[in-house]
Amino acid sequence: MKPANRAPAAASLTRCVRDGLLALCLLLPALPAPARAPDPATPTAVVGVRLTDLDPEHWISRLAEPDRLILDRAAIEAHNARMRAEDPSILDLATLPDPMPGEWVRQRLQALSAPPSRPLYDVQGKPVPARQLAALQQALALDRIPTSRPLRWGLAVQRTDLRAFPTALRVFSTPGDTDIDRFQESALFPGDAVAVLHESRDRQWLFVASERYTAWVRAEHIATGTRDTVLGYARREPYVVVTGASVRTTYTPEEPRVSSLQLDMGLRLPLRTDLDPTRPVNGQHPFASHVVDLPVRAADGSLEIVPALVPRSADVSPDYLPLTPANLIRQAFKFLGERYGWGHSYGTRDCSGFVSEVYRSFGVLLPRNTRDQAVSPVLERVLGEDADATQRQQAVRGLQVGDLVYIPGHVMMAIGHQDGMAYMIHDTSGGSWLGADGSRVRAGLNGVSVTPLEPLMFNDTQTYVDRLTSIQRIRARTAP
What would the DSSP string read from start to end of 404-436? Predict the structure, then answer.
């Protein structure tokens, strides 16, 4: 470049230095204004819910005694003992007869696996043929149930489905509606103890009794061992408790049986304490992890216990959490937005699974299904199905954090009151209310949601409050 052409550039540079940032700003293109954070008071598309209502601390800040202990450890242990002794839906495995009478097995199997009484459809929306349903009855192998048999014991080695029949076939009540599989009952979790009662004709499925459910499970997901090992696993100390919605074990190619396993809220995992802390576990130094013992299945189906790593960054606790209103809200909100999963399908949970796993993080045992929770004699019944409209309204106004609120087929957990309404957190496949024009808005929430109770519609003419069947409360039983 010629010297004559450098002088204007030098003068421009001098001016930039002299005028500093002002000159620089003039040379730069205009930048867009930074985006503003949404106003917490902004309404959402769900009736009565603002953005701030989706923050657990919003509800905790409204409590007079957020850290009040509802039940201490001794009271929780007493509650659980009463559940095992008094609630007919809870099965104390330690009290099962051995050998097991065949008639006991037959009655429970036939009650669960009764032939379907209505049309069912497959994932393509086609009717399930009668011959296919008849084949499922043959798969039950009822003719192979002996008069009595010695009990076999096992531990679940991964999260696995509990099914009404020994099949992975998914069936539905309505063509195209493939969320609610009518053969899906519940789930077992890693370390859950079972008594093995029977096996399918092809021996690929086991009919098992767990503490909260009796159903069919894939044989490959159960490892069989001695009674003492199986029942003693959940009593081992020290331990950690999963307090996140779910965590996963560390990936390990060295021991794929415990690699990236899903561990759901409330699971109690015994710690391995006898390992050399300087030696790798499954190819990794253990100093930044919890070393837990998990059950695995050997090639012959027998039970082995092997170490696995859970990162110290994972949401786990050295013990069950204190049962307080604040902790109830925080634990429930950890599931907020999770997809609804009927019978624990999709690796998630349904309404009764949701509330029972929230309470499981405090060590509190609840029945698995809504129909059993709603009538459990161990819980404090705040409202019954025969209540009149005035009693229903009074009970709703008196709801406390953690109360379980039931309508037919559904349960919700109370989190507080606001704007004259009771607010719930619940895992729902539906959700509807009346729009501005008076017509019913069907939201299809299909996940863990926060909603007010009063506007929700059970059908076109009845509200949830109209259809309340029960309100149950977890609290210490007072002496008579």
Answer: EEEETTEEEEEEEEETTEEEEEEEES--EEE-T
For 177-208, the pLDDT digits (tens) are: 899 999 999 999 999 999 999 999 999 999 99
Please tell me whether residues 241 and 329 are part of one structural domain.
no
Domain enclosing residue 428, as ranges: 51-71+323-473
Q: Same domain for 107 and 213?
A: yes
Measuring CA to CA, how many Å separate 432 from each of 177, 205, 440, 456, 460? 18, 39, 7, 6, 9
pLDDT value at 19 more than 80: no
Instruction: Give the whole-number percent of the chain exceeding pLDDT 90.
Output: 90
- Both 348 and 456 in one domain: the answer is yes
Residues recorded for the chain: 480
For residue 440, give the 3-state DSSP assignment. Answer: strand
Report the side by side order of strands in the sheet with 410-418. Answer: 380-383, 470-473, 404-407, 410-418, 421-428, 447-452
CA 322/CA 75 separation, integer angstroms: 12
Number of domains in the chain: 3
Q: For residue 259, which of 268, 249, 269 has the smallest C-alpha distance?
A: 249
pLDDT digits (tens, 9 = 90+) for 309-335: 999 999 999 999 999 999 999 999 999
- State the residue for tokens 């063509």: 175
CATH code for the domain in which residue 300 is found = 2.30.30.40
pLDDT tens-place string over residues 443-469? 999 999 999 999 999 999 999 999 999
Residue 115 belongs to a domain? yes
In-domain check, residue 414: yes
